[in-house]
Specification:
With 302 residues, the chain is of the alpha+beta class. It is built from eleven helices and twelve strands. 36% of the residues lie in helices and 21% in strands. The strands form three sheets. It has a five-stranded antiparallel beta sheet, with helices on both faces. Strands 4-7-5-6 form a four-stranded antiparallel beta sheet, covered by helices on one side. A three-stranded parallel beta sheet has the order 2-1-3, with no helix packed on it. It starts with a strand and ends in a 6-residue tail after the last helix.
Length: 302
């Protein structure tokens, strides 16, 4: 049984991922596939279908953050990707950063900002000047797909800050220039890395999912062997620290010979423009093999 769609900002991406996965599974006659939204009826449907595995293809809140995982745990059904704890920690960009920092993984310095009625913006700007320096990146604590991410200069800071007010709390991160590199882990294997060169200002929603935005995907990445191993090892360390299962993708900035871990994704996309399938393909792992590896590494709940 496949779970897809859901209630997050990344609903559309999850449906595209599910379509490409279902198309692939259908080529091989051995799977009896039922797709479901994680809606009010899904538990009933799941009990009736009695799947031997749930392939979780949800992204973002309620699908990637431990909520759906805890329902699947209590239904005693096997499911793919990370479990309750890993998912809830990884989706929280602040808590996961704290774990990375504590364990010697470099991540951009940040401040947490809570929206209040009487914020002293002059003080805030001073604090940023001292601790981070402009430009900075504003981002929600638990969104994905670059939703709500703003790179901002000092001039536009206040107006951009207001745009994220609905999130109540956000991260203000130091902007790290340099290159955008992502690393995938599959089970116990370091799958490899890919570099993204967006034509847009940064790797935003459009650069990620719209082919007309013409983001360049570079693989193999032009990097020294030492740095190749370094970044793969950081991704593996982060994967293990958060106790991830199945596949994960860690997003890095590479600047002045240092890798800064931005975040770890426990439910990376599997659309035709997605990076994990592309990294796998480069390792001669076909799409079906990738899906089957993810399914093999599912929880053992029965
Ligand atoms: N500190 C930063 N410095 C430079 N670019 C950043 C920084 N944080 C985010 N970005 C840009 O925004 C994109 C999305 O940020 P990320 O933290 O990965 O959140 P999301 O969960 O939305 O993918 C990154 O891929 C990168 O291009
Ligand atoms: Mg990201």
């Amino acid at each position: 049984m496949i779970l897809a769609g859901g209630y997050s900002n990344e609903r559309e991406i999850s449906l595209i991922t599910a379509n490409s996965v279902i198309k692939e599974l259908k080529k091989y006659k051995k799977y009896n596939v039922l797709m479901s939204e994680p809606d009010g009826n899904f538990i009933k449907k799941m009990r009736k279908f009695n799947p031997n595995l749930v392939l979780n293809l949800l992204h973002g809140r309620y699908g990637e953050d431990g909520y759906i995982q805890s329902i699947l745990e209590s239904e005693k059904v096997r499911y793919t990707h990370s479990g309750v704890l890993s998912s809830s920690i990884a989706i929280d960009k602040e808590i996961s950063k704290k774990i990375f920092i504590k364990n010697g993984i470099l991540t951009p310095p940040y401040l947490k900002f809570s929206y209040k009625k009487n914020t002293n913006f002059a003080d805030l700007k001073n604090k940023i000047n001292k601790r981070l320096k402009f430009p900075v990146v504003l981002k929600p604590l638990n969104e994905g797909s670059s939703v709500g991410v703003y790179i901002t200069s000092k001039n536009k800071f206040i107006s951009n800050l207001h745009k994220l007010e609905k999130f109540k709390e956000i991260l203000i991160e130091k902007y790290i220039p340099g290159r955008e590199i992502q690393a995938a882990i599959l089970g116990k294997k370091k799958l490899g890395i890919i570099e993204l060169k967006p034509k847009r200002k940064f790797y935003d929603y459009k650069a990620k999912y719209d082919a007309s935005a013409k983001t360049k995907h570079i693989i193999p990445v032009d990097i020294s062997i030492k740095n190749f191993h370094r970044v793969n090892s950081i991704a593996m360390k982060a994967h293990k620290l958060l106790r991830c299962r199945g596949v994960s993708r860690s997003d890095f900035r590479f600047y002045k010979n240092k890798f800064y871990l931005l975040e770890l994704n426990t439910q990376p996309g599997m659309t035709s423009l997605s990076l994990v399938p592309e990294i796998a393909r480069h390792q001669n792992i076909s799409f079906i093999e990738l899906i089957e590896e993810i399914m093999k590494d599912a929880s053992i709940n029965k």
